[in-house]
C-alpha cells in the first residue's frame, strides 16, 4: 500500500514524523515535536476520531531519511496485513524496527 492509498482507505489515520519519541498521545507534545513531510497535510488540529501514530527520527533514523512517515506507516501496515498481524501501533513499530535494522 502506498501513502496515497492509505489516505484514501483510512483518512483518519496520520503517521507523523517527530523529533523525539512521543509515547503518550499528548497533543501539545505532538505539536511541539512534529516534523512536516511532503505528503503529510499541515498538521491539523487534533479532532476526535483521528488516529495519530508518531514515528520518531531518533527511533527510525534510516527509515525516515529514506521515506516519509506516511510511506513508512503504509509499508508497516502492509507488512502487518501480509503476516495476518493485528493492525496496532506496537506491531507497526515492530515492523519499522526490523526495517531499520535492515538499513
Task: Write a structural description.
The protein is built from 5 helices and 3 strands, in the order αβαββααα. Helix content is 47%, strand content 14%. Helix 4 (69-82) packs across helix 5 (89-102). It has a 3-stranded mixed β-sheet with strand order 2-1-3.
N- and C-termini, Cα separation? 20 Å
Helix content: 40-55%
Mean pLDDT reading: 90
| Computed Rg | 13 Å
Tell the overall outline: globular
What is the helix tally? 5
Q: SSE order in H/E notation?
A: HEHEEHHH
Q: How many beta-strand segments?
A: 3
Which consecutive residue ranges, at least 5 long each, have pLDDT under 50?
A: none
Percent in strands = 5-15%
The helix-and-strand class reads: alpha+beta
Reported for the largest beta sheet, the result is: 3 strands, mixed
- Strand order in space, largest sheet: 2-1-3
Amino acid at each position: 500500500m502506498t501513502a496515497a492509498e492509505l489516505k484514501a482507505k483510512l483518512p483518519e489515520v496520520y503517521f507523523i514524523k517527530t523529533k523525539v519519541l512521543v509515547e503518550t498521545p499528548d497533543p501539545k507534545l505532538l505539536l511541539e515535536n512534529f516534523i512536516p513531510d511532503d505528503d503529510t497535510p499541515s498538521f491539523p488540529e487534533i479532532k476526535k476520531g483521528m488516529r495519530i501514530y508518531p514515528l520518531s527520527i531518533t527511533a527510525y533514523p534510516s527509515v525516515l531519511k529514506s521515506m516519509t512517515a506516511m510511506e513508512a506507516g503504509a509499508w508497516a501496515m502492509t507488512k502487518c496485513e501480509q503476516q495476518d498481524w493485528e493492525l496496532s501501533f506496537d506491531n507497526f513499530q515492530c515492523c519499522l524496527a526490523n526495517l531499520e535494522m535492515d538499513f
